[in-house]
Amino acid sequence: MQQLNNFLSTIDSYIGSAGWFPFALLGVGLFFTIYLKFPQIRYFRFAFKVVRGKFDRAGDQGDTSHFQALTTALSGTVGTGNIAGVALAVHLGGPAALFWMVVTAAIGMCTKFVEVTLSHKYREVAEDGTMAGGPMYYMKNKLNMKWLAVVFAIATVLSSFGTGNMPQINSISSALKSTFAIEPWMTGAVLSLILAFVIIGGIKRIASVTEKLVPAMAIVYFLGCFSVIFANIGNLIPSIASIFSSLFTTTAATGGFLGATVMYAFNVGVGRGLFSNEAGQGSAPIAHASAKGHEPVSEGMVAILEPFIDTIVICSITGLTLLSSGVWQEKHLNDFAVTDMSILAGHDYTDDNKAGRVALKEHLSGENPLPVFDGMLQVENGKITSNVTVIHARSLAEDIVVNESFGGAPLTGEVEISNGKPVDGSISFYGKSLIHSVPLTAIAFTKGWFGEYGQYIVSIGILLFAFSTAISWSYYGDRAMTFLWGSGSVKYYRIVYVAGFFIAAVADTTIIWTVAAIAIAVMTLPNLLGIFLLRKDMKSTIADYWKGMKEEFPDEKTPE
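User: That's the sequence. What structure does it adopt?
Assistant: Structure tokens below.
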């Protein structure tokens, strides 16, 4: 199984994880931004009028309102990326990574506008009378490339499990176990039943749930964020300044943080930004295609708000919470993850002077790797006696204790190390180092007015954010199945989707995540190609929209 996962990871390294992939996404978004004359800015205020239903007609065809389509799409993107993804970006790239996340979202607003407009324009009515749309429909109905549509739809089904299903319940069950000591199987069982109840009702019940759930979870999460920001208000201006001061210079090494290059911060920020709002992936257009409307451009305008809310607002507030609390550059006691750990040969490395920090940073970046340890690591009563240095989470680890297992007794004996990593995964390394993802955000939330209770807000946020993502992605897979095998196949898909949700609460789903990473790239690349080929169609559709608006609402001031 590990060999298969390594093989799939190699494939992913050439597509979704390749250096050119973010530039392809940004490039298409930047092209449309210029080609359509910055619609994400010109149409921004007008989009709020559309969401409120000001220009709706009584007989508009569709299953959901504009607001319900927006919240359904938002529930698919507002997830663990907003809590864990931002923390990972700051951990890896420093404050500058936040700037690039915001820039990516600003460009992504235009990409969303285009892909949603075209998907809404070429949607169809399914056999059961519901609306069916998404990139696969414009690929089939306009580009006459059904084979490409089939590839996209299959990738969407795989992504529904690897993006919206398994990683989400895995994060929920882990968070609830660490905070409330609830066993993962119990979390999986209860939430699987709730998930089944919601998705069996189809898009109307999904939309009804998400339109209430998304605002509620945003309020809870913002309450926690602002409690930290205002409790550390003196750090707010310096935190904002650090975002811009580190843009064009190497991010300074502070505390346990070893610094980050300009390019590294850019790559991390863009990558996390794209992961957060999914602009260009083609998933959100499936939700927006269900919206009632006689003009596809109107729904495209609604989609402009999505990356703005998801990344520019929520991710920025998360980032300021992390920066103002100061926890991102502090070492904390934690159980070391093998994937984040490296054991160096020798004990001469330090992070308390510039030369040591430079040497460690260059090792982590691959510029000048330091020799790693191979052989038997000597441990006595939990303390390492061999001449080594332990790196964990891109920081120099301190106060290390080696235990026989997680939560077990201190080890006395030998630990086999191969290429700088322990061979036996059951051996536990515990100590002080930088941390990232959900644990980092949880600690940041304890630095506010709620104190230690702040971590519970993160657990609740993970529960609401991740569960809402699972709901939305079930609909994306539902519509892809409808495209591939008709409406009758949806009930079987839903059964498997709920079963997978339960299994992932207690099982290792690493290989599914790797498959999903490939599937996301297989969704994104055809979608980017398709919207680029339809650029003239997009431009003429916008022109027709404003022409119709002037005829129907002659007194309305339009931003065309």
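Residues 332-433 form one domain.
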